[in-house]
């Protein structure tokens, strides 16, 4: 007496006969019992220098930031970076370098500034 019973037929007929409830009611109860867990709140990613506190100029940069204040210091740093990028751009124009080479030089300047401690 081998009979094949599918899972949905088994749940429906067994659930109706044993618990006295319909399969759809059981499914609704199971869905209501499901608790959704929210993802933990992530803090804002901070851009940090991996060489922070390292480099020959790092102590000077930290002292200057503490004296001038963080907001003013970041303004001055932004102006210095912009001026340096302009110098690199003018240099590239004078030697006939294309924009890709100019971009590479600006990236190299940033890496050197990190290593020397200017971005501490």
Automatic annotation (TrEMBL):
GO terms for cellular component: chloroplast. GO terms for biological process: photosynthetic electron transport in photosystem I; response to high light intensity. It comes from the Eukaryota. One of its GO terms (molecular function) is electron transfer activity. InterPro entries: PGR5. This is Proton gradient regulation 5. It comes from Buddleja alternifolia. The lineage of its organism: Eukaryota, Viridiplantae, Streptophyta, Embryophyta, Tracheophyta.
